[in-house]
Amino acid sequence: MNFLICSTIWLLSVHLLRENMSCWGLRSADGTPDRPHSDPKYSWETLQRQKRNWVWNQFFVLEEYTGTDPLYVGKLHSDVDKGDGNVRYVLTGSGASSIFTIDEKTGDIHATKRLDREEQGYYTLHAQAVDSKTNAPVEDESEFIVKVQDINDNEPKFLDGPYTAGVPEMSPLGTMVVQVTATDADDPTYGNSARVVYSIIHGQPYFSVEPKTGIIRTALPNMDRETRNQYVLIIQAKDMVGQMGGLSGTTSVTVTLTDVNDNPPRFSRKSYQYSVLESVPVPSVVAKLKAADADIDSNAEMDYHIIDGDARGVFNITTDEDTQEGVIFLQRPLDYETKSSFSLKIEATNRNIDPQFLTFGPFSDTAAVKVIVEDVNEPPVFYPLIRKLMVSEAARVGTVIGMVSASDPDSSSSAIRYSIDRNTDLERFFNVDALTGVISTAKALDRELNSVHNLTILATENQDPSQVGRGIVLIRVMDINDNAPVFAIEYETLLCENAAPGQVIQTISAVDKDEPPSGHRFYFSLAFSASNNNNFTLRDNKDNTASVLTKHADFRRQEQSLYLLPVLIVDSGSPALSSTNTLSVRVCDCDVDGIPQACGTVAFSLPQGLSTGALLAILGCIITLLVLMLLIMAMLRRRKAPLFLEDERDVRENIVRYDDEGGGEEDTEAFDMVALRNLNIIRDSKVQDISPETASVYPYSASAISRTSYKTLPDNIVFQEFIWDRLKVTEVDPSAPPYDSLQTYAFEGNGSVADSLSTLELPSSDSEQSYDYLSNWGPRFKKLADLYGTDCELNVIVK
């Protein structure tokens, strides 16, 4: 209705001022006609700004129009239009034709679709008056805006909801919790459609919300998390400033009270009692106790301390960080016979104390703990636990080294027997007296093999053999001079042929397995057998080393390439020991810098003029000849005497390679029967080996075969006779290898007129299978009919 009134007012204004209009626009107050904004000569900056009676270039359309007729927007009119139909109005721009239509004759603009301001707030259109006949513009194009006027059709929405927030417990009244915000898609510049106020629907009296800002605050002081830790609020946002008829939206706010340290730790009891065996090892856990704290996380963390008691140094307490329990553990071994009970005073204190809650009381608590030690049957104990002894490596078997002692700590004081844990004395160097604990040698000792023996001595109670105590005995073997010195390393001495007299060619040193208290001192000299040699001399350097020097020059490898020099080494022990070591000196050919080039025996020299390449060529020829000889020998060794004649083996190989079916009688390329016709007559010795029973099977006798050439026989008879001869020779020869095998065709297939051809047998078979029907199958089966007919039986032998 408002829109219709505005449109009517606009039409009346246009009609009243029509006489003053030069084209589209209204005249301004000074009579100057309006021009399109696109003309720079008449831009608003160049014109004098004066108040207008009417703004014609903006129309208003109410959104969400639900009428059935098109909504009237406004009317365009030109002074040129005399009402005779010569002027036509054209509308272009956003929404033209699809949303807005114009009557070409009258200039009336209508909206044909329902508009939504939240989708598009305004439309920019262009109007043009043209000649209806020539379409030539009669007025300049003008731009105007159709603005969609808002109605309250969108409720407020909490885009970030639902909300979660936290506030510390015990917070004062009015503490801010969280701020919620609702948005309204309606036009905030028009009316109250987008003006939102907030209210709390659910959550009172604990919380409140500010109507304009949406800030939620605590409405009660000192809310206790331990009583209730979570609240769910329902907040409403309503437009139209909350007035009747406004639209509203809601969201939920989950408020969690966060913990503060407002609860001190408290033991559930004032005294505790625990029992522990005296045999528990250090640092075993003796007991656990816990002070309850209603707070959580870091506010419930606490420390435990032993603040009093008669067990100082025996027990200690620590905090289990996972369970916040006080863990009492053992620091020193317990002894029931010494002290059977202990009293402790334990204090539990909060680790993180908030000063603002100190008025709630002391954040600590104490409890008395009594620990009772229970007696157990303990194993014997050695005094001392580790004993150190010494023995000379020259000690005789049975020498007493020392003794160990153990006692039963229990009141029963059981008798004890001693023994050695043989896992610590595998070679049984020592013995221990079972009653007295005296340790003695059982074998000769050698310090160089084992200088320290670590023995475990077992002490077992006679009354209870399961009670075994263990003690450690460290026996150190003292050294005697029983090893002669030797060369420190295996020396390799090289002597240049051009060495000068008195030149040091080697410096030697020695080692000794013994370890004298004052250290080693070695003396070097040439052995008596080499003391008068004319080539080398030895000089003792007095620092456990010696130098070997040449006596003359001009050493020659051709004369002597190796010298063996015996060296006598004596130690400083008591008694002194010595050994003779041989030093090998090799004579070498050296360069000008004295670097050896060739040592030892003079090698054979090549003939003058024979190069290294020629020598390699000769060596290659020799290797090639050797390889050829080996191949020839290998071929001769693999060659064996043939079982049959050479041409017969060729025939056998042809049969093996004949593996195609062929094309019957018309196929003359698959297999050549000429080879069978050119066979030599079978030797009489082979024919005579055929038994009479076998010979009776052939249509031709054996004597006839020996007298008749294969050339005179038909093809099928030749092939048959050849196969039978081969088979029979193999059967009667026990040493013949099994080259032949019987090939059985067990099944041909369903629906075959010939049924099965599986009755291919040896001569010993009694089969009466008839193959006469093969002759009725046509020319392609003539060969099979000849081979399997009544006059002939054939068994196929596959090589």
Automatic annotation (TrEMBL):
Signal peptide residue numbers: 1-25
User: Which topology term describes how it sits in the membrane?
Assistant: Single-pass type I membrane protein
Q: Name one GO cellular component term.
A: adherens junction
Which is a Pfam family this sequence falls into? CADH_Y-type_LIR
Q: Please report the stretch or stretches of sequence annotated as the Cadherin domain.
A: 78-158, 159-267, 268-382, 383-487, 487-598
InterPro entries given for it? Cadherin, Cadherin-like_dom, Cadherin-like_sf, Cadherin_CS, Cadherin_Y-type_LIR, Catenin-bd_sf
Q: Which GO terms describe its biological process?
A: adherens junction organization; calcium-dependent cell-cell adhesion via plasma membrane cell adhesion molecules; cell migration; cell morphogenesis; cell-cell adhesion mediated by cadherin; cell-cell junction assembly; homophilic cell adhesion via plasma membrane adhesion molecules; morphogenesis of an epithelium
| Membrane-traversing stretches | 614-636
GO MF, one example: cadherin binding
Q: Which CDD domains match?
A: Cadherin_repeat
Location(s) in or outside the cell:
Cell junction, Adherens junction; Cell membrane
Sorted UniProt keywords: Calcium, Cell adhesion, Cell junction, Cell membrane, Glycoprotein, Membrane, Metal-binding, Repeat, Signal, Transmembrane, Transmembrane helix
Biological role:
Cadherins are calcium-dependent cell adhesion proteins.
User: Which protein, by its recorded name, is this?
Assistant: Cadherin 7
Q: Which organism is it from?
A: Cyprinus carpio carpio
